Amino acid sequence: MTSSSEQVAADTALFLDRLEQEELAIVRRAYAKHVLANANINDPRVGAAFAAVRREDFLGPGPWPMPRWSGPYVPTPSDDPVYLYQDTLVGIVPERHLNNGQPSLHALLISAATPRSSEHVVQIGAGVGYYTAILVHMVGKNGRVTAVEFDSGLAGRLAANFAGQPHVRSLRGDGAEIEFDPADVIYVNAGATRPADIWLDRLKDGGRLILPLTSDKGFGENPENIPIQRRGAVFRIERHGVEYLAKWISAVAIFPCEGARDIESERALAAAFEKGGWERVTRLYRSGDLPDAQCWLKGPDWALAYA
Ligand SMILES: C[S@@+](CC[C@H](N)C(=O)[O-])C[C@H]1O[C@@H](n2cnc3c(N)ncnc32)[C@H](O)[C@@H]1O
Questions:
Q1: 215 pLDDT band (50/70/90 cuts)?
Q2: Helix (H) or strand (E) holding 298
C-alpha cells in the first residue's frame, strides 16, 4: 500500500513530467518553424512532422555531443532535451564524425522528396532513426518505411528505436545492394559517387530518389568554408518509365556511402564539379554513351545530362 506522502510525490512527479512535455511541445513547434525558415521552404506537412517527432527519443540519453567546426565536440550543458531543438548536427558516433544530420537540410530534402500518405519510403543510411521517424509521420499509418543502416551498432539502436512498429522495417546492410520492395521515395543519407543500380531499378513509376553525390575532397571540414566542388551536390531524380528526370537541389557535405562509390565515377564527379553547371542538369541516363556536350557528368555507364 502506498502512503499518502508517497502518493503526493508520485503525483508531483507526474505533473512535472507532463508540464515538461507540454513545454517541449511548444519548443518543438518553434524549432519546426526555424528549421523550415532556414531551409527556405513553406511545407506544412514537413513542419508538422518536425513539430511532432521527439528527437530525444532517438539519440539516446543526454548530455549529447554537439560538433563544433572550430574544435572537438562539446557536450550539451545537461540532458535537458531542449538543447536538441536547434538547427544543428548532433554526434551519434563522434569519433567517426558520424552525426544526426542538420534538420534544415533534411527538411529541404524531405520536402523535395514529397513522401505522401500511404507511400513506401526507403531510407539508406538511417543512423538511429530520427529522420526515419519524420518520414514515418509523413507517410502515416497506411504507409511504410524501410530503413537501412550499414553500421551494426547503429543498426541495433535503429531496430530498438522502432521495435513493435510493424510499418517500419529496419535492416542492417549495404543499402547499395540490399533487397527492398519497390519504393515511392528512396532517401539516401550518405554521399555516393554514383546511383546504385537497385535505387534506379526499385524506384516506382513516378517515384523520387534523393541522391547526394560527393567527391572525396573536403569531408570533415566546415562546409561553410569549402566550395561545392569540394563538397557535393544533392539531386532529385524522378522516374517516368525508363526516363529519369534530374534536378539539382542543394550543396551538401555528408558522410560517405559505403558500396556506392567507385574511382571512375569519383573522377568524373570531381571534373564535373570543377566545370560547374550542375544547376542545368535535367536528366539522368543509365548509359555513358552520350555526346560530351550533352553531359554535365559522364560516368562509366551512367550520366547526368543537360537534356
Ligand atoms: C550522415 S550519417 C546520417 C545518419 C542519419 N540519417 C541521421 O541523420 O541521423 C550517414 C549514415 O549512413 C550510413 N551508411 C553509409 N553507407 C551506407 C550504406 N551503403 N548502406 C546503409 N547505410 C550506410 C552510415 O553508417 C551513417 O550512419
A1: confident
A2: strand 295-298
| Grid cell at residue 248 | 539539382
CA-nearest residue, atom 4 of ligand 1? 127
State the amino acid at position 19 in one-letter form: L
The end-to-end CA distance of the chain, in Å, is 76
Residue with cell 508520485: 10
Among the residue ranges 68-82, 134-148, 200-214, the one predicted with the least confidence is 68-82
Is there an atom of ligand 1 within 6 Å of 122 CB?
A: no
Ligand 1: which atom is nearest the Cα of residue 123?
6
Cell numbers at residue 15, please? 505533473
CB contact at 8 A, 284 and 244: yes
Q: Using a 6 Å cutoff on CB, does residue 146 contact ligand 1?
A: no
The span from the CA of 167 to the CA of 200, in Å, is 23
The pLDDT of residue 253: 84
Q: Are 170 and 242 in contact (CB under 8 A)?
A: no
For residues 132 and 158, is the Cβ–Cβ distance under 8 A?
A: yes
Q: Kindly calculate the radius of gyration of the chain based on its CA atoms and give it in whole angstroms.
A: 21
Of all protein residues, the one whose alpha carbon is nearest to atom 14 of ligand 1 is: 125
Query: Residues 175, 177, 182, 187: is their CA dihedral positive or negative?
Result: positive
Q: How confident is the model at residue 16 (pLDDT cuts 50, 70, 90)?
A: confident
Long-range contacts of 20-26 (CB under 8 A, 24+ apart): 24/54, 24/81, 24/82, 24/85, 25/51
* Res 120 pLDDT > 60: yes
pTM: 0.94
Ligand 1 proximity of 259 Cβ (cutoff 6 Å): yes
